[in-house]
Amino acid sequence: MLALPQRNHRSSVSMQAYAQYEAIVKKRLIPWAGACDIKAITPMQIDEFYATLLQQGRADGKGGLSAKSVLYIHRVLNGALGHAVQKGLLVKNPLLSVTNIPKAKKFKASAYSAEEIRSLLEAAVAENSFWQAAIALAAI
Prior knowledge:
Number of helices: 5
Largest sheet: none
Number of strands: 0
């Protein structure tokens, strides 16, 4: 059975990180695999779990989770199963044989051109906008 160890005062994990891990375990991992024996979890089941999350994993029922969210769940599950291997509960981590680990999309930032900044500042001045100073400082 999957469970999250209790956080103690000597833990290297911050309270915020622990709360996020706990939410993933309670909302995603336990409903998926909580009732089965940890030794019975197969790479195929994990592949199917990730595919389901990507297609229909949102809590509001309106589609799937992003690849980044599923990757985060993967990391928590990998940590839990790796810990089970260290404790002798598993011989091998089944995640080592999973084939469809999601890849997060790379973020590509873009900057405004000098002309776009000039236009934005002119619009803020014309409106006598509260944002005029913030826009001017951000443009520096």
